Amino acid sequence: MAKITMREAISQALMEEMDRDPSVFIMGEEVGVWGGSYAVTKGFYDKYGPRRVKDTPIAENAILGGAIGAAMVGQRPVAELMTINFAFSAMDYIVNQAAKLHYMFAGQFTLPLVIRAVGGGGRQLGATHSQTPDAIFAHFPGLKVIAPGTPADAKGLLKAAIRSNDPVLFIEHATMYQTRGEVPDGDVLIPIGKSKVQRVGSHVTVVTYSKGLELSMKAAEELAKEGIEVEVVDLRCLRPLDMEPVIESFKKTNHAVVVEEGWKSYGVGSEIVARIYEEAFDYLDAPVKRVAQKEVPLPYNRTLEQAALPQVEDVVAAVKEVLR
Amino acid sequence: MDKEKLLQMYYEMVLIRRLEERGAELYQAGKIGGFMHLYIGQEAVSTGLIAAREPRDRVITAYRDHGVALNCGISANQVMAELLGKVTGTSRGKGGSMHMADVTKNFWGGHAIVGGHLPIASGFAIGDQYAGNDNVTICMFGDGATNIGYFHEALNLSKTWNLRVLWVCENNHYGMGTAVDRASAVSQISQKAEGYGMANERVDGMDVLAVYKASQKALEFVRSKSEPFLLEIMTYRFRGHSMGDPERYRKQAEVKKWEESDPIGLYRANLVKQKISEARLDEIEARVDLEIAKAVEFAEASPEPGMDELFKDIYADVD
Amino acid sequence: MAETISMPKLGFDMREGVLVRWVKNEGETISKGDVLAEIETDKATVEVESSASGVVRKLLASKGDSVPVGSAIAIIGSADEKIEDSAAPVSSAPAKVEQKPAAATSMPVTEAQPVAEVESGPVKASPLARKVASESKLDLHQVQGTGPGGRIVRRDVETALASGKAAPAAAPVSAPAAKAVPQPAAAVFAPVSHSDEIIQTTKLRQAIGRRLVESKQNLPHFYVSHEYNMDALNALRKQINGMLPEGEKISVNDFIVKACALALREFPNLNSSLNGTEIMRHGGVNVGVAVTVPGGLMTVVVKDTDQKPLRQISMEVKSMAVRARDGKVKPEDVDGSTFSTSNLGMYDVENFIAIINPPEAAILAIGSAREVPVAENGQIKVGSRMKATVSVDHRISDGAEAAQFMQSLAKYLEEPMRLML
Q1: How far is B62 from chain A (nearest CA, A)?
Q2: A219 domain residue, yes or no
Q3: C186 neighbourhood in chain A, CB within 8 Å
Q4: Nearest alpha-carbon partner for B137 in B71, B209, B229
């Protein structure tokens, strides 16, 4: 076991997989010489060289289309989107091509592609650089969407994603690269599509992932001081979505809150709430509440930005509300 | 070129023509659904081009793909079955007219997003470059696709990274219903390659031997120099953009004029001039008629995909 | 004038930097633009230039220190000026740079709750509370809700059960052993035993009320009673039911319903509705049967009763009654009756009078069939007799017709084989 940051965990996963499998290579903007705009691939260029760490032009369609093509003919590319906000420039490749080619051609080839993308707000980067559009990508069958909240999960899931034969969108959070956590040594893979109870509790179920996990765990600590025990279920993957631990928890607590950084309307929470109603209606003792970003484009001003983003106190308030 | 190969090309062109004609009839009879884009008039393009490739060279095209599929060696049976949505089709009925493919024959489809497959073609070349071989990716697309962003990104990357891609523009003068000069800043598509410092050529697509020669040259260039090449092939489609196209954007007189340069007719005349007997050519045509008739029979008799097929192939990894 | 050099922000997400090495030391001269130190961020080691010229008077961080962005790291001044000893504290642990936004608390975090108004009609209770209550056969109308808007939640049901409001038939399956659920604001009501009890009327009760007020006020009711000899019917029924499986036995009321239907064919005026000055005699005979449901009464309807065999009438009434009691009644179950019946015989009622369901013309109230002494040929015998009273709208019909209708009914009830024809 070692306590490392999210950045280190992701970096380690990439390096271990590149060392293990020569067909794995990285491509994206500034991944090579610059070392990665979030420094995840720092040192990779020197270690692996330009053949395996490819700096691309600023051309998302070429990056993702190119990665898709290379995956179809037998390599295992890990493409990087500098930020998930740039995914919109190449939406076709993510949802129309990667998600569908295997199906449309009846499985004649595999598409073992990983797209790493960084999302989230809170750094005053303005509306077009601060989004959390995770729900949009989770909407499409044929794609797998992973969004870890701890370094251990990030490392184990990224390794699994690289070894999987399906296209995976791996979403990292811009303000969580410094998050520290215990990560087991060795070649540890986490199965894709399994939610995890990160904190056991008996009064209320908080369902969340990525940045929401950080907020929820802090809120849980605060609420514990008042005698409210929160059970935090971390989805880790948005597609495939594992509702089993969520429903099991909900049947125990009968009260739930969903926490996400994206907007509430049509967000991840909408799906979780719908499934709770579908699968555990009789266990509801109160309507499920969603904590999410205010319905605004994220502004530059720091105070306004923080007011728009969900905070720990919003989670605390929501928990108290459902227990009323 | 040896006689067998010459005759093979004639056979392929006629096979495409008959399959497309029969396909149109089946479509109008309601047996084929969705969109269907006929290759009638353009047979020389894919025939001459693919005849020049090595089996290890990859072919990818847009949605006017039935002819390409046949040239790559997919049987008429399988093409017909896919058109009718049967489980014996190339994509087990899940792709349809626009998504034929057989990767064992190095034919990678059949793509419906205009220009969408171009970056993927660059991707094939990236993969092959990574693997260290000299496979060439032949990427076919229409004149309309040269105006979309994907074209720019894909071509730019191919030149910057020295990728072995032969970019083939089938210029049939119309992007759906819009003439080239209404959609494109320059009407001579091969000129666009200059912006990338890319070698390029323009050739008459109604002459299958001219296409073959130009393709051979281009493939040799790409393979040996590890540099992309843009080959613009001038052609014309005698039918509408797709089934149901009322063709208000062009005059029938124009179509008639082009039909005088029917590639099959021209080639036939050429072969006869090269002392190949008419009887031989008639025999090929008869053989094709029979083959297509059998293909339709096969397709109609084939079963529909089962309901379980609906949920297959969403992912490769299934628990 | 001395100038303080602070840890610069070298990247948009930089929070702190590590002092790798001082390039200039205390006492050394430095010009603006000269490299002062090497700072390491998450991403790289960067040379930091001095923004002032002078002499390095104080270095406020040591090699290896982690300094938050914005904290002072050095003081540059002239050689002889006095430099205060106090300087910005340098911590090796990263301090929080962001301020907690004050504006956040003024933003509404939760939506405003709607004004708590307990509605009449269906009880407001969470699905879980309903489940627990139904498992314990506890009537939710007797439970006080303490959730938002007066909603009954699980704890309210548990409280009610604990206070002995109703004996729970079975322990709730899903509820874990009593756990302390923290309640930030709710007050729990003690069970009411000596004070007045207020029950909110259900929506159904209110609807019934409205209709029947209208009926009683607007329709000139008159009543005709008749006593029926049920001996033959009882015997026939016993015989028929001997042939039928359990759960499919035909009731006395089923016979009466069919009998009414056939009698109405002879008296179409009683199978009608008044509209202004027009009486519409309905083409179909659809007999309604009153069914008790939680919170009130519903009339389920057998369409074309006169056309249907007894067994079908019996099955339809049974299934519609079940649906009605379960709250799953379908619109077609309760629409379109042309004549209604109400039977209180199961409560041993000798006779009673019912209120007509507008826009019908009449309703038959049925009492119990009972063994009574009867006079026959000067002898006292025991016979089965049942009393029934028909209420009729005097705008449509009159006593003679109503009486004749009751006689016709007797024909069918006392010669029940006619019901088979």
Answers
A1: 13
A2: yes
A3: 324
A4: B229
Chains interfacing with A (3 or more CB pairs < 8 Å):
B, C
- Domain map (residue ranges) of chain C: 3-77, 123-192, 203-420
| A208 and A272 co-located in one domain | yes
Identify whether A60 is a catalytic site residue.
yes
Distance CA B301, CA B282 (A): 29
CB A17 within 8 A of CB A159: yes
Active site residues of C: 394
Q: Is the ipTM of this complex over 0.90?
A: no
What's phi and psi for B118, nearest 5 deg? Answer: -65, -50
Touch test B–C: 3 Cβ pairs or more under 8 Å: no
For the segment A105-112, the average pLDDT, to the nearest whole number, is 97
- What does CATH list as the number for B3-303? 3.40.50.970
pLDDT average, residue stretch C169-185: 44
Rounded CA-CA distance C48/C71 in Å is 14
* Chain A nearest CA to C180, separation (Å): 9
Cα–Cα distances in angstroms (integers) from residue B171 to residues A230, B179, B199, C81, in the given order: 65, 10, 17, 81
Count CB neighbours of B93 within 10 A. 21
- Domain end call among A132, A157, A183: A183
Give C288's strand partners.
C301, C340
Residues A126 and A218 in one domain: no
CATH number of C123-192: 4.10.320.10
Assess whether A204 and A312 both reside in one domain. Answer: yes
Which pLDDT score, from 0 to 100, does residue C276 have? 86
What the block records as the tokens of C244 is: 């039928």
Instruction: Bin B207: left if φ > 0, else alpha if -120 < ψ < 50, else beta.
Output: beta
- Number of domains comprising chain A: 2
Number of helices and strands in chain C (H, E): 8, 16
Residues A34 and A147 in one domain: yes
CB C354 within 8 A of CB C390: no
Range of the domain at A179: 2-183
CA A62 to chain C, closest CA, distance in angstroms equals 27
> Is B316–A107 a contact, with Cβ atoms under 8 angstroms apart?
yes
How many percent of chain C have pLDDT more than 90? 45
Q: For chain B, what are the domain ranges?
A: 3-303
Domain CATH code at residue A313: 3.40.50.920
Mean pLDDT of C87-100: 42
Whether A50 has its CB under 8 Å from any CB of chain B: the answer is no
Provide the residue type at B90 as one letter: T
pLDDT tens digits along B173-184: 999 989 999 999
Q: What angle do CA B175, B177, B183 make, to 5 degrees?
A: 50
Closest CA to B159 of A59, A98, A80: A59
Q: For testing the chain A interface, which of C9, C12, C13 should be mutated: the one with the most A CBs within 10 Å?
A: C13
Question: Which chains touch B (3+ CB pairs under 8 A)?
Answer: A
- The reply to whether C380 touches chain A by the CB within 8 Å rule is no
Same domain, A32 and A175: yes
Specify if A188 maps to a domain.
no
Residues A140 and A270 occupy one common structural domain: no
Q: Which CATH architecture has domain C203-420?
A: 2-Layer Sandwich (3.30)
Minimal C-alpha gap between C100 and chain A (Å): 8
Beta bridge partners of C349: none
Domain final residue, candidates A119, A151, A183:
A183
Does residue C10 sit at the A interface (CB-CB below 8 Å)? no
Q: In CATH, what number does C3-77 get?
A: 2.40.50.100
Residues A42 and A109 in one domain: yes
Is the pLDDT at C109 greater than 60? The verdict is no
Indicate the residue of B124, B130, B315 with minimum beta-carbon distance to A25.
B130
- Give contacts of A202 with chain C, Cβ < 8 Å: 176, 179
- In the stretch 225-284 of chain C, residues with CB closer than 8 A to chain A read none
**Domain holding A80: CATH number?**
3.40.50.970
